[in-house]
Amino acid sequence: MRGENMLIDHLNARIIKEKSPIVVGLDPRWDLIPEAIKHENLKAYGETFKAVAESILHFNKGIIDAVMESAFVFKPQIAFYEQYGIEGIEAYYKTCQYVKEVGGIVIGDIKRGDIGSTSEAYAIAHLGETTIGNRSLKAFDSDFVTINPYLGSDCIAPFLNQCQTHDKGVFVLVKTSNPSSGELQDLFVGNTRIYERIADWVHGWSIKTTGNSGYSSVGAVVGATYPEELKRLREKMPNSIFLVPGYGAQGGGAKDVVEAFDSNGLGALINNSRGILYAYRKTGENYQIAAKKAANEMKASIVLELERVAK
Ligand SMILES: O=c1ccn([C@@H]2O[C@H](COP(=O)(O)O)[C@@H](O)[C@H]2O)c(=O)[nH]1
């Protein structure tokens, strides 16, 4: 498989070129969207899902445009859109489309996984193509999605198949950033913790799909809030790119994520959602200016920390 995997190599080439391993999480919250945007849509559509969806799209496009100089990877979390029904899902779809239009990469944070046949439908919906008679249509065209391995390997296989067919990628939940992630993930099965067992699976899948850059498009989600575990997991999954949430609002900082990277500054994508989207609420600036500054600062802190460690 080495060398055939283009998405991951393209991603790594851009991380190097743009010196940016950051991901901007697009988690729109109605109560935190600037009043001026909401006002315009409430006037046009009243207190409806349509007004919310239009506001979300306006806000997201503004954020994407503002941070493009320091970020090219975006992670919309689908739950924030689903709560606004069909219109919310449309805003999710259009957000993904807009990221693609401006040359960005989309990680659909969908955290899916079910029995094999249902996982296949999820995988087709978010990574593949739906067949209707003689036509094949893309439903949601993400580059990567997040997946939940709790149902076992047959729930993962359909996603891996779509990755191979359509040159897409997945991030498997390994050690999540939330405070109670250890309740299940840290339990021992024999001498191995559950999250380590999942890391072994991910490693097994990733070595079969490693690209020229030495990484696979089968990646792992590992929280910035567990830096010790992050370090050990880096050793366990040397070919997997990590998606690292937990930076910013959840307490993680540049020092906590540095072990996720290899000596070339590759191997990790660090996500920040609230800390960038709603930076304006702390600074009182225009939301785009504040988001741009927050993204630039995050990128600079991580680059500085990587340089410090490399010395
Ligand atoms: O372990 C995990 C997995 C996913 N997430 C998601 O990342 C963002 C984090 O948002 P912040 O505002 O930067 O805290 C959010 O979409 C989560 O659902 C995570 O936090 N931890």
Low-confidence stretches: none
> How many DSSP helices?
14
Number of domains: 1
- Strand tally is 12
- Report, as a whole number of angstroms, the end-to-end distance: 35 Å
Kindly report the CATH topology: TIM Barrel
CATH C-level name: Alpha Beta
Radius of gyration: 19 Å
Q: In percent terms, what proportion of residues is strand?
A: 15-25%
Major sheet details:
8 strands, parallel, barrel
Estimated helix fraction: 40-55%
User: Quick one: overall form?
Assistant: globular
CATH architecture: Alpha-Beta Barrel
Quick description:
The chain is α/β, with parallel strands linked by helices. It has a single domain, classed as Aldolase class I (TIM Barrel, Alpha-Beta Barrel), CATH 3.20.20.
Could you explain how this protein is built, in words?
- By secondary structure, this protein is of the alpha/beta class.
- 49% of the residues lie in helices and 18% in strands.
- The protein has helices at 6-18, 35-45, 49-67, 79-82, 85-101, 116-126, 153-166, 182-185, 194-207, 227-236, 254-257, 274-277, 280-283, 287-310, and strands at residues 22-26, 73-76, 105-112, 130-132, 135-137, 144-147, 169-175, 188-189, 192-193, 216-222, 240-244, 268-272.
- The protein has an 8-stranded parallel β-barrel, surrounded by 8 helices. Strands 4-5 form a two-stranded antiparallel sheet.
- It binds the ligand O=c1ccn([C@@H]2O[C@H](COP(=O)(O)O)[C@@H](O)[C@H]2O)c(=O)[nH]1.
Which features does this protein show?
binds the ligand O=c1ccn([C@@H]2O[C@H](COP(=O)(O)O)[C@@H](O)[C@H]2O)c(=O)[nH]1; Orotidine 5'-phosphate decarboxylase; lyase; 49% helix; eight-stranded parallel β-barrel; 14 helices; single chain; 311 residues; alpha/beta; TIM Barrel; 18% strand; OMPdeCOase_dom; decarboxylase
